[in-house]
Amino acid sequence: MTTTATSHRTRPPAQPDSLRAKRLPWYAAPAIAVVALALSAVIVYGAGVGGPVLVVVLGAILYLVGLFTAANAVEGRRSARNRTWSALIHSAFVLAVLPLVSVVWTLVSKGASRLDANFFQTSMNNIGARDANGGAYHAIVGTLEQVGIATLITVPLGVLCAIYIVEYGRGKFAFAIRFFVDVMTGIPSIVSGLFVLAFWVLIVSPWFNDGRPSFSGFAAALALSVLMLPTIVRSTEEMLRLVPAPLREGAYALGVPKWKTILRVVLPTALPGIVTGVMLAIARAAGETAPVLLVAGGGAAINTNPFENNQSSLSLFVYQQAGDASKYAPARAWTAALTLVALVLILTIAAKLLARRNRLSR
Amino acid sequence: MAKRVSATNVTAYYGGFKAIENINLTVEPKTVTALIGPSGCGKSTFLRSINRMHEVLPGARVEGSLTIDDQDIYDRDVDVTAVRRTIGMVFQRPNPFPTMSIFENVVAGLKLNGVRKKSILEDAAEKALRAANLWGEVKDRLGKPGAGLSGGQQQRLCIARTIAVEPQVVLMDEPCSALDPISTLAIEDLMFQLKDKFTIIIVTHNMQQAARVSDRTAFFSIEKTGDPGRLIEYDNTQKIFSNPSVKKTEDYITGRFG
């Protein structure tokens, strides 16, 4: 017997006699979890060293140990490892989702108090520290206009740039463009704001404004464009590279010119991925505060003209209200934050639906 | 319609690597010519240089002259897209356009080259699908995605797409290597029918297929890895498979080599 047992270790395992193996009953894992939590609670509160968080953490560790031991005893080592790793991967998922759920919950619970019609219909114009009402209409307008203009600028530019890099660019020039796009990805938003402040607000805008420099929503859109462009270029580039080469060759072999192949075969194939990249860029831009503060200046009144005078934005509104001394301001800040998240979410869902509108995938 | 393809001293490179050297061969109109030989011997490279698909890859170039009815397709003033419209190509793996329906796939070549009129497109689609023996299977679902068909149907869809632009020569690069025997048979039957209208050149690793479908067979080979591929023997298929004049051809065909 001993010889067979040792030889099993050195040689590859022999064919098992039966394909059946012992399994833990279905209730084993939940039972171990309950026992582990109970044990952990007894230890933690017994020793008086911590609260519920420690109970859960210790409980999770005890659960893993208990699960491994039980599975090892009944099902064998391989199965025990499988169960332990599955449990670890699931815990990693829970840990990753926890902050997200927490953020959404905080936003909803704290933002709900000012989620009224007044908030969406009024601005902060003539709202004093003792006024409970006041809203973010001007900020919503600002965010939509600034992000909209930035999107109009960056999507064509970014997609064309990515097409150049993937389909046409050869040699040092394309390499240089790729390199600088990578560098641009790392630009802090305040730097892009400073760039637009120095270049557009102080040098160019006086030409249109009787010689006086002027803040504007458009300047904010330019700053956001600088931030969005590299994201769009890189994501579009990756998506275009994923389009299989045989598709391009199939079109070339039909005598279709290159530009038309790109326009009618390559881009439609990569479209869903490109849309995702654009939405990521929009979400990032909508959340930027610093460049808007620097070049659009913010403001309490409604200004629907993005080319003249101060404009606010939702993220800037959150920043200003969160730092305001009025006791009513924090509620407005939370609601504005909730509005911003909802806005980005709605835009993302709408874009996904549009990209999938292709009747073939219905 | 069908045209004669003639290669004189064709040499093709991938960057610094010479893939084929001094290929001389003439393909008569309305015949099926099979290109056979071991992997890496340059059959596909030669095939791709016939419709100027070789140069699509970065660094690839072709020397020598390739003529279609006495017109050199590598002349300076030749329009590449016109060459490719005249010389269609079917690839090893079926590659229908995933964002297009069956109908749009078939007429893609026409539509992307500017044909707008719906009646013309519909006629062309039906004609091409009938010619590709696919009409009966897809006529009720022309609006469905082309990628939803089976592998053999997809390949016939690609053939339909190719012949819809009415080329004069059809190149096929191992068109059956990803297909089961039944789909292969369907495509071989198809080649027989297409021979009436087109000049067909097919690359195949399947010796029986070459013997079944082709009128003439060209055997390519290489001395050793890294050497350029050369044309060893080019003759009537029957002669190649029964009584080849070069020992190397016989060795390859009987399986003693490669």
UniProtKB/TrEMBL annotation, chain A:
Keywords: Cell membrane, Membrane, Phosphate transport, Transmembrane, Transmembrane helix, Transport. It is found in: Cell membrane. Gene3D superfamilies: MetI-like. Residues 140-355 form the ABC transmembrane type-1 domain. The keyword Membrane applies. PROSITE patterns: ABC_TM1. The chain crosses the membrane at residues 26-47, 53-74, 86-108, 147-167, 179-203, 215-233, 265-286, 333-355. The keyword Transport applies. Belongs to the binding-protein-dependent transport system permease family. CysTW subfamily. Part of the binding-protein-dependent transport system for phosphate; probably responsible for the translocation of the substrate across the membrane. This is Phosphate transport system permease protein PstA. The lineage of its organism: Bacteria, Bacillati, Actinomycetota, Actinomycetes, Micromonosporales. The gene is pstA.
Automatic annotation (TrEMBL), chain B:
Keywords: ATP-binding, Nucleotide-binding, Translocase, Transport. The keyword Phosphoprotein does not apply. Signal peptide: none annotated. One of its GO terms (molecular function) is ATP binding. Residues 5-247 form the ABC transporter domain. The keyword Metal-binding does not apply. Pfam families: ABC_tran (PF00005). It comes from the Bacteria. NCBIfam families: 3a0107s01c2 (TIGR00972). PANTHER family: ABC TRANSPORTER I FAMILY MEMBER 17. This is Phosphate ABC transporter ATP-binding protein PstB. It comes from Micromonospora parva.
